[in-house]
Specification:
There is one protein chain. Helices cover about 60% and strands about 10% of the residues. The protein is α+β, with helices and mostly antiparallel strands. α3 runs antiparallel to α4.
């Protein structure tokens, strides 16, 4: 019995050790996505038919992320639950660039996720 308990404890420790770096990586991806919209010069974030500047958009996404809590475990969850559509109206978010072209926020964030480069380990 004692051996089984020690084995279970060891397995849990290994799982926790694997989880922490993976979770840190997902949090870095989410920060990358929010920064991608926050630094868009001259772009507008369209939410429920109203245009917002990039800083306001980033703050809104941070609020939605905080409210989502444990539902968001990965960058894909962030895109799905926080960054793609209004939770009130269900309407998709859009991003209008300074040149006037627009894309859905979901497409914007999926493209930016593809360009994510993990930070170097210390």
């Amino acid at each position: 019995m004692k051996t089984a308990l020690l084995l279970l404890t060891a397995l849990l420790c290994l799982a926790a050790a694997d989880y922490a770096p993976a979770q840190d990586l997902e949090e870095a991806k989410i920060r990358h996505l929010i920064a991608a919209v926050e630094t868009l010069a001259g772009a507008q974030f369209i939410r429920n038919g109203r245009a917002y500047d990039a800083e306001t958009a980033a703050n809104h996404l941070r609020l939605k992320l905080a409210v989502a809590g444990d539902r968001v475990k990965a960058a894909e969850d962030f895109i799905r639950y926080c960054a793609s559509r209004s939770s009130r109206s269900g309407k998709p978010y859009k991003i209008r660039f300074s040149d006037g072209t627009a894309v859905t926020a979901e497409q914007f964030f999926r493209d930016r996720l593809q360009s994510f480069t993990p930070p170097d380990k210390p």
